[in-house]
Amino acid sequence: MDAYYRALEKTIKPGMRVLDAGSGTGILGLMALKLGAQSVTCVDVSSIVNVSENFLKKNAEPGSYRIIQKELREIKGMEFDVVVGELLSHFGFEEDSAGIYSSLKKNLAGKPVFIPSGLELYCNIANISRFTDDSLYKSTTIDYTEIIKEYCQFPEYIKSSEFRNIADDQLLYSSPLTEFSLPSVLRCSIELPENTCFNAITTFFRAQLAKDVFITNSPDFNETHWMNIVFPVFPAMISGGRIEVELYPRSIGMKNIWAWKVTTGDQVCYADSLSQSQNSIDEILASCNLIRTEPDISYSGDILLSILDALGVENPSTDIDVLVTNIMNKRPDFFSSKEHASDYITSILAALNSIV
């Protein structure tokens, strides 16, 4: 929170109106008031607004704040000077956060300052001990290779204190906050000294909060509670020169289902966590709050048809308008707006695009 305080200190001027987006306990809103803001509006979709109301009642002046329990996409026509929020995650944004900020930019009156204002995503390599259990390789009677290979098909969430990156950080993606749209594939090249051994691709973000103020979950900084998404490389690679990295950040619901590829010389490592989930279609659909209606699906190419069927589409298509109409008719209480439904469906289609 220190970085957010420094950013607000640089930004807030007397008389400013502040929106605390996804306010949680309301701590950022209170910071803004203490730094001279005229008023703060705390908006959160969950019942935690009851906590923020009690918190501000005890610590802020009456009439200086208001609490709204509502989906942020539904906040329209209001005018603020500053929008501050901590809707970040281990990879910078959760599935829907970027869409929330872009909708706020479109729906709010005026031109507020956003905190954070921009986001950068980075990549590196590392040797991580948990990916190489020496005891497994010492057995002379059991071959654990296939077990380890399957384990290494899934990204891991690891504390930055558990590893150190080997090479120079490489930028994967950079964007203003309100225009953030994660590409379907992220690529970078990393130069290595001769005989460098590594068994993981590491990622981290850097969010710009204000001039000269940023927050990051880089292993070189120990200032956030966010972990790093790390991708196992099995078997470990030994290389010198250039390696090519490709990351496919697919997300269904709140479940990350990634694929990644590392190439150096004639060595190639490719992993796809969705391939390990292809016999768990019900689990995938459940993460989308959907129900499977086709009884027998045995391979991943049918997942999209199953989801479209669950959406109530008789003739499956990728026409977003058709899908929005069907899913809003089927689940009228789940979506706050057509835009919300459209973003939700688009994320599913994007997540499945590379396997259908």
Please provide a written account of the structure.
By secondary structure, the protein is of the alpha+beta class. It folds into 3 domains: 2-86, Rossmann fold, CATH 3.40.50.150; 119-242, Hnrnp arginine n-methyltransferase1, CATH 2.70.160; 281-352, no CATH class. The protein has 10 helices and 17 strands. It has helices spanning 2-11, 27-34, 49-59, 97-107, 134-138, 145-151, 281-287, 303-310, 320-330, 338-352; strands spanning 17-21, 39-44, 65-69, 82-85, 88-89, 92-93, 113-115, 118-126, 156-158, 170-176, 186-210, 213-216, 228-248, 251-252, 255-256, 259-264, 267-272. The strands form 4 sheets. Strands 8, 9, 10, 11, 12, 13, 16 and 17 form an 8-stranded antiparallel beta sheet that branches. A 5-stranded parallel beta sheet has the order 3-2-1-4-7, with helices on one face. It has a two-stranded antiparallel ribbon with strand order 5-6. A hairpin with a 2-residue loop joins strand 5 and strand 6 (92-93). Residues 294-303 have low confidence and may be disordered.
